[in-house]
Amino acid sequence: xxxxxxxxxxxxxxxxxxxxxxxxxxxxxxxxxxxxxxxxxxxxxxxxxxxxxxxxxxxxxxxxxxxxxxxxxxxxxxxxxxxxxxxxxxxxxxxxxxxxxxxxxxxxxxxxxxxxxxxxxxxxxxxxxxxxxxxxxxxxxxxxxxxxxxxxxxxxxxxxxxxxxxxxxxxxxxxxxxxxxxxxxxxxxxxxxxxxxxxxxxxxxxxxxxxxxxxxxxxxxxxxxxxxxxxxxxxxxxxxxxxxxxxxxxxxxxxxxxxxxxxxxxxxxxxxxxxxxxxxxxxxxxxxxxxxxxxxxxxxxxxxxxxxxxxxxxxxxxxxxxxxxxxxxxxxxxxxxxxxxxxxxxxxxxxxxxxxxxxxxxxxxxxxxxxxxxxxxxxxxxxxxxxxxxxxxxxxxxxxxxxxxxxxxxxxxxxxxxxxxxxxxxxxxxxxxxxxxxxxxxxxxxxxxxxxxxxxxxxxxxxxxxxxxxxxxxxxxxxxxxxxxxxxxxxxxxxxxxxxxxxxxxxxxxxxxxxxxxxxxxxxxxxxxxxxxxxxxxxxxxxxxxxxxxxxxxxxxxxxxxxxxxxx
Length: 568
Description:
The protein is of the alpha/beta class and about 575 residues long. It has helices at about 1-5, 25-40, 55-65, 80-95, 105-120, 135-145, 165-170, 175-180, 195-205, 220-230, 235-250, 255-270, 270-305, 315-345, 365-380, 405-415, 455-460, 485-500, 510-525, 535-545; strands at about 45-50, 70-75, 125-130, 160-165, 185-190, 395-405, 415-420, 430-435, 440-445, 450-455, 460-470, 550-555, 565. Strand 9 (about 440-445) and strand 10 (about 450-455) form a beta hairpin. Helix 4 runs parallel beside helix 5 (about 105-120) and helix 9 (about 195-205) crosses helix 10.
């Protein structure tokens, strides 16, 4: 295949997990350090991240670095009941139990005896639950109770929860508050940045044996790959594999824009959909044309007077005349249809093109220009105008890209940002949204503000949002009572400023007093009052203190029709 063509020894972008291709970015190393720390200190450890961000890679590294005196049970399908989960843990660890008596008590007693024996032997026991976002609340509560198995000096069981971002929302429920408080280390994996994507691609090509003189991906192409994949390693693998195959098919050693466009169509499945659409359109035209012909021929037939005498001819001549008549009628009919189509009398057969939504006129295909417009609106300076989000002169500000599913989530983030819209020809464009009401949005384009119906945006939006906020230094994961961090001091100082108090409630240590103050703040801001320092609480704290610029609030009652205003 294409491997020999590029001088590769093997496929460089297989989606199978291969330890030889392990790429550890800074955040992957940090996540691994958090997990190792959490396991050594007992209780719960949590790792979350979008599909394809490298959770399995980190787990594999973790397993390789566990001490030899560690026994581990790995649960890959956590969707069962509590007894089923406990029996699976026992099976993984080799714990004996009576199969006919699968009760929670019997299984817990058997597991507790095993853990005590393991502790006497100087061995640690770890349970790793993958896809933990699928766990049911009663099962999670039973898992929490397992951590009560302890001696006077140590926990007998360490539990690792690995899952998608929904796991964080699940643990934020009030019913699971006790479990959430027992998590000693947590980390959320983000997508790769553009420099990390470049390093990731180079790393895999090098491991696969790419010769030094070969360079299939230039910097511009890597930027396109990063934009398409969103920095998700699995998607990077998929698109790069298709790009190399496409280049091989066209005998090109460099990936160009045409090859990229074709690969994107194949990966995203848009080519097949477009072909089906074109085929459906052609079929519809054929059916309408034939029906039109039949209708005209029937009309001609019934309009011929019954009294009109027909000339008598010999049989052979008559047959010939009939054929000539049929041919003449067919030609006349086709000419008639053609004339009527040209004159517009059969306009009902003509497919009118759909009007282009007005909101697309307020968007741009230039992603960099869109970022600079967002920065200008927020009064933030870009350190590199070619890569605005990569270098920010205002050190505490960061760009965050997320995918949200609803108007409510956008309102909850409450930050001006870039939304990604799809044009009729399946191209991505970016619109700057700076205000919201229940049914309308305020967009900004070239210093002109335009109010448009939300329904018009919703039909084109793919859910991507890029926004900027002042993220406090050191905020990498949620903090809760019992944690120690400089960020705890910072949050306490912000509440002291908000409350006009001379000194913060605490320094370094997350105390119960600070937790109660956070709960009170969350309840006044319509946030789940769990007392946890999370991104939502920090964003809202920034708003109240005037640090970040929120979305403008539009008066729905005055928005009878979209209106354009200047210089708002």
